[in-house]
């Protein structure tokens, strides 16, 4: 079996994450000197994203979106389908499935949930649960133009190769901030999305 099939991903998650407990991951791990991260924030907003591993045979891929340029936050950036957890949602899984349907038209019947990565804290005040799932083609997607410019896939083998994980830095609130970036062809995957992918690599593929 190829190392990067959807079935191999599923087996790895069930083998490595089942019953495991981890310290919360997040932007603060690369930036421990920045105090206003994570659980110390006065108001943390709960959110969930869907890490959808699309079954493409020997070469599975990860479903990603390009956010529209007019959004108030993270405009134009590459992201997983996802968003805030509403009171009506059935927890992080319900929120991730709902958001994936609203943003890109992903039918939840095509999605098999296999686990999650626990909490990932962002510098913008979110406590995100990355929900792990396999997705069965064929996919007939309809991106919501109010939120998503484009939906696309990147090979799992590329994103789970640590040689493609670049550590970058920039100014953030007057201090140097470090973050991961994973450029792929014309796409620039960075920030929280790349950080979550790095956690996925560390826990499932390292």
From TrEMBL:
GO terms for molecular function: coenzyme A diphosphatase activity; metal ion binding. It comes from the Bacteria. SUPFAM superfamilies: Nudix. Signal peptide: none annotated. InterPro entries: CoAse, NUDIX_hydrolase-like_dom_sf, NUDIX_hydrolase_dom. It holds the Pfam family NUDIX. Keywords: Hydrolase, Magnesium, Manganese, Metal-binding. Residues 44-176 form the Nudix hydrolase domain. Its cofactor is Mg(2+); Mn(2+). PANTHER family: MITOCHONDRIAL COENZYME A DIPHOSPHATASE NUDT8 (PTHR12992:SF11), NUDIX HYDROLASE (PTHR12992). NCBIfam families: PRK10707.1. This is 8-oxo-dGTP pyrophosphatase MutT, NUDIX family. It comes from Pseudovibrio denitrificans.
């Amino acid at each position: 079996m190829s190392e990067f099939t959807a079935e191999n991903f599923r087996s790895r998650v069930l083998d490595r994450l089942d019953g495991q407990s981890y310290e919360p991951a997040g932007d603060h791990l690369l930036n421990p000197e920045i105090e206003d991260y994570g659980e110390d924030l006065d108001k943390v907003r709960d959110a969930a994203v869907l890490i959808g591993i699309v079954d493409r045979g020997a070469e599975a891929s990860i479903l990603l979106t390009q956010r529209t340029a007019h959004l108030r936050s993270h405009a134009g950036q590459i992201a997983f389908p996802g968003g805030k957890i509403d009171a009506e949602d059935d927890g992080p899984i319900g929120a991730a499935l709902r958001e994936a349907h609203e943003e890109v038209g992903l039918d939840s019947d095509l999605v098999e949930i296999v686990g999650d990565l626990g909490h990932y804290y962002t510098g913008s005040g979110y406590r995100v649960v990355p929900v792990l799932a396999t997705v069965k083609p064929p996919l007939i997607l309809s991106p919501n133009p109010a939120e998503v410019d484009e939906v696309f896939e990147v090979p799992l083998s590329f994103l789970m190769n640590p040689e493609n994980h670049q550590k970058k830095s920039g100014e953030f609130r007057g201090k140097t901030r470090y973050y991961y970036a994973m450029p792929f062809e014309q796409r620039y995957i960075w920030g929280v999305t790349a950080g979550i992918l790095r956690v996925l690599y560390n826990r499932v593929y390292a």
